[in-house]
Amino acid sequence: MISKGTLREIGHIAGADHLVHSNELMADYATDGTRLEYMPEAVVFPADRDQVSKILMLATKKGFPVIPRGAGSGMSGGALAVQGGLVMVMNRFDRILSIDQDNLICKVEPGVITEYLQKSVEDLGLFYPPDPASLDVCTLGGNVAECAGGLRAVKYGVTRDYVLGLTVVLPTGEIIRTGVETMKGVAGYDLTRLIVGSEGTLAVITAITLRLVPKPQAKKTMIAFFPDVDSAIRTVTNIIRAKIIPTILEFIDRACLDCVMDKISIPVPKKAAGMLLIEMDGDQITVDKGAEMIRHVCLMTGCLYFEEAEGSREAERLWEARRNVSPSLLALRPHKISEDIVVPRSRMPELFAYLGELSHQFGLPVPAFGHAGDGNIHINIMLDKDDPKEVENAHELVIALFKRLISMGGTITGEHGIGITKSPYLEMEIPRPGLELMKRIKQAFDPKGILNPGKIFCL
């Protein structure tokens, strides 16, 4: 419980205009992409790292929780005040501090919108590849905290592959810098990698040094429909086996296609059971050659229809289906549980066969789409949460799914993180000794347990 006196101290640190504690004003900060709701006791908007430091020192002294928050677009409940306390919103940290074209790095504050950074560096002929689906609203600090992925991960990797260094404030108030501003650096433990993906449980990020790459000269978008899931997934494997690494290699199953049919302007063959959306980038010669090889692989694997976009407007038309999938699925049921599991690419046919079994066994639609190029598939368990039987079946379905994919060498989350939604299942993947080690690391960073408590590890 945060006392009135403590609230006055927080207001003195950040300014009274940057502290709110009425339910009406805090409502937007009580939820996130999960649509779960936990009302905080107060919300603060610090302006600089010194204010963050003073607030965290006060929290450690008084013993109240602090929950760092970016845009609130996370899908695992990582920014929710599950134990009350103070939500610390980082949206005033919104500056691109520098872009170094000679060394291909940039320095940013955590509140910078991901898409804004991408456009800013692309104007200079540079490229920041990570592209989570919410890139037009999500912040770079949130991306780092969750180690966000995105559609381009098959070629370019994920957020951690671009974070060179951080400035962070520890829960006890110390300000430290981790990492380097160079392409190499192995001095001491890699604290940067430890903090990336730690979901706001170890430190509050106040500045980020990111690696950039040259902007690709050209890109080409293609779409292909297949008569069954096996042929579509086999095509993914064959493309990679042919030593072609597309920028994007997305899969959408028939259930998803049925939901978006009336919202897109591309022809969907009646017999199509799956669709691949493929994009190549690089120099023009490489892109043209790769696109032709992809066309050949698709046709050899039984493709029903193949189309290559001519120009950006045509490419945008092909993207319609992928962008409309997630919201359109609510036509099947009023609610959904979204899981972002990953399996080795070679085992995706086994995964999709098992999804069909699970759907039949539990009587729930289980449409799937996602990043087939890296085996990261978004499983959507559609249900009516007002029906207790469907809720129970959905829970049992998740457990069965997680058991199978772990036996396949997969993971229960590829990009959404653990937060609170997956914490009950974490021990299925990480044995108890590993979890105990993680808890000791948490204790070393946060001896009073004030920073984002209740996340990752079960309450």
Brief sketch in words of this structure:
With 459 residues, the chain is of the alpha+beta class. It has helices at residues 4-14, 23-26, 49-62, 114-122, 140-146, 153-156, 191-195, 229-241, 254-260, 284-300, 311-328, 348-362, 388-407, 426-429, 432-445; strands spanning 19-20, 42-44, 66-69, 86-89, 96-100, 105-108, 126-127, 163-169, 175-179, 204-211, 213-214, 218-226, 248-253, 274-282, 305-308, 335-342, 368-371, 376-383. Strand 17 (368-371) and strand 18 (376-383) form a beta hairpin.
Short key terms for the protein model shown above:
4 domains, Uridine Diphospho-n-acetylenolpyruvylglucosamine Reductase, domain 3, alpha+beta, 35% helix, Alpha-Beta Plaits, Uridine Diphospho-n-acetylenolpyruvylglucosamine Reductase, domain 2, 7-stranded antiparallel sheet, 20% strand, 459 residues, 5-stranded antiparallel sheet, 15 helices, single chain
